[in-house]
Amino acid sequence: MKIYTRTGDDGKTSTLSGKRVSKDSAIMQVNGTIDELNAVIGVALSYNNHEEIEEILEEIQSDLFVIGTEITLSEKSDTNKIKISQYRIKRLEDLIDSITEKLPKLRNFILPGGSLLASHLHLARTVCRRAERTLVSFIDETDLNTFSLQYLNRLSDLLFVLSRYANKLDKIPERKWKF
Q: What's the pTM?
């Protein structure tokens, strides 16, 4: 099977449902950003030495595929059985709470950075926020009813907490914002 098809040379692509759309359409913007987020998390994983963090990030990557599929199939909502659930949001909240308990209380803004893992988790957090913004635009256009927006909102918080945790595990002090 060839990787290239030449069918996108005119600036259009096909969704999973077979519909042809512009490559800069809202559906492609949100799915492209979610794909980018998944790739950034993959880069973070390449710098990871902590089994607990690896398991969490691999779960997230799987969830991001679910979100991308849900969005792509949203025009066929009657057949769309692949959806992110409230359970997955609760899972993120539980992770945030349990990891936060292991961290020093946050009393200042901190600057993104630290280890390569933590730095890439901070980058993933910012891409996640952009994915959230593009999903808001898509939902405004389509009236999609999804828990994905809540998931992305919690995920950015989890990525922040994980970046702090990675620095703690690697014994790298947080850099406080000095104003």
A: 0.91
Alpha helix (H) ranges present in the chain?
26-46, 51-72, 86-100, 116-142, 148-169
| Sign for the pseudo-dihedral over CA of 158, 37, 66, 79 | positive
Q: Sign of torsion, CA 86 87 90 92? A: negative
Tokens standing for residue 27: 């559906």
* pLDDT tens track for 33-80: 999 999 999 999 999 999 999 999 999 999 999 999 888 887 765 555
Distance in angstroms (rounded) separating the CA atoms of residues 142 and 26: 10
Domain ranges, ordered by start, for the chain: 23-102+109-169
User: Residue type at 144?
Assistant: L
pLDDT greater than 70 at residue 91: yes
Two structure tokens written together for 177: 């914002």
CATH topology of domain 23-102+109-169: Hypothetical Protein Ta1238; Chain: A; (1.20.1200)
